[in-house]
Write a structure and sequence with these properties.
- By secondary structure, the chain is mainly α.
- It has one domain.
- The chain has 2 helices and no strands.
- It starts with a helix and ends with a helix.
Length: 66
């Protein structure tokens, strides 16, 4: 069960990372295609950093489990 939770954490964090990174990149390339139309660059950057941190912590926990 703990391995399943760490895998779920990694999956969710990667999805959040991709969503907000896509919004951040597309806002500068093609603003009409950005998922949130670049509503807040601070929010995009914050979510990318937090999702990356969660992915790292989930991966680290996954490696420590037997």
């Amino acid at each position: 069960m703990p391995k399943l939770l760490t895998i779920a954490g990694m999956t969710i964090s990667v999805l959040v990372l991709l969503l907000f990174l896509l919004d951040l990149v597309l806002y500068f390339v093609v603003p009409a295609l950005a998922p949130f139309q670049g509503a807040s660059l601070t929010m995009d950057i914050s979510f990318v950093i937090c999702a990356g941190t969660l992915a790292y912590l989930s991966w680290s926990s996954f490696r420590e489990l037997p």
